[in-house]
Amino acid sequence: MEFESKIRTIQWVDNISRMVDQTKFPDEYVYVDIKTGDEMYDAIKTMIVRGAPAIGIAGAHGVVLYALELQKENLSLGDFKSKLIEKCDYLASSRPTAVNLMWAVEQQKNLIKNCKSNIETLISDLTQQAIRMENEDIEINKAIGRYGAEVVPKGATILTHCNAGALATVGYGTALGVVRSAFANDNTIQVFADETRPRQQGARITTLELTMDGIPTTLITDGMCSYFMKKGMIDMVVVGADRIAANGDTANKIGTYTVAIAAKYHNIPFYIAAPLSTIDTSIKTGDEIPIEERSHDEVTHINGKTICADGVNIINPGFDVTPHELITGIITEVGILKPDYNKSIKEAFEKKSPVLV
């Protein structure tokens, strides 16, 4: 049995990128139309669209939007390609940690560099590739869900951190894809969702997704996970990822490392769920992953209101890196990778994904 999510996060429609505005949750569930490349840069930067796989698709769409704008300038093919590659590099700089953005933009850049025909054909090819990536994302997530469901015990309570669901992807989700697939086979599965300070993606987004789909969910604050682990109320942890190094070190939303340490102490399996496009084999360890420093207002304010003393010092890294030795397995579209991750990741890239044949 396969679970069908009701959510479609981002879609190419009539030369615009239509996406759910995730800054409006939980008050509104609305779509916004992104019509220019600069609008896409801002949508990624301000987290209208968020989650590594969804950001990747947004990047692919953004390249097409820039191409459509440059088409109006009546450039030669050479000048068009040169300017479009500059736009690609600018777009890729909008979020430095999530490697899916760089991966998707690089796929588009390869088309641009190899084009020898004309501008119209190039734009058509870029558009078709963006749509293909979009559709493949859902199938990849469903494959991740099927593999992940195999390691979920009957009646399990799954802890997740941040949002790695349909709204972090085109649809279905990575970590929540595992939840959805497991729940389709066993409706006694339930979820504990960390609130995920400072932007509360767990509280605002994960709980929304799961309640929409009728999956029993309990919201807890970030500091509560050890308490519930000690009481035997959590059976496993499944989270998403924004970048995975060649050795398995994994960058995910800030606070993930803390959850992994607690899970290790309590002998609770800790899984990463992510597509192969999130694995960056160009970096050897997590020490090389750039960590985005976000606005101090995210920490000092909630719903526009200050929650701390004026003048207090603020540090706001958006992500942390969980060392590979704390990770039980990495659930991908080609199977569950196990330590030694240097070896299993290399072997995974040598496989041909069944959803991409």
Would you kindly provide a written description of the structure presented here, covering whatever features stand out?
By secondary structure, the protein is of the alpha/beta class. The chain has 2 domains: 10-140, Four Helix Bundle (Hemerythrin (Met), subunit A), CATH 1.20.120.420; 145-350, 3-Layer(aba) Sandwich (Rossmann fold), CATH 3.40.50. It contains 11 helices and 16 strands. It has helices at 37-45, 52-71, 77-92, 99-114, 119-149, 175-185, 201-212, 225-230, 256-265, 297-300, 341-350, and strands at residues 10-13, 16-20, 31-34, 157-160, 190-194, 217-220, 236-239, 243-245, 250-253, 270-273, 279-280, 301-302, 305-306, 319-322, 329-332, 335-337. Helix 7 (201-212) links the parallel strand 5 (190-194) and strand 6. Helix 2 packs antiparallel against helix 5. The chain starts with 9 loop residues before the first strand and ends in a 7-residue tail after the last helix. Mean pLDDT is 94; it is low at 353-357.
Instruction: List unreliable stretches of 5+ residues.
Output: 353-357
Structural class: alpha/beta
The CATH H-level homologous superfamily of the largest domain? Translation initiation factor eif-2b, domain 2
Total number of beta strands: 16
The rounded distance between the terminal residues' Cα atoms is 22 Å
**CATH architecture identity of the largest domain:** 3-Layer(aba) Sandwich
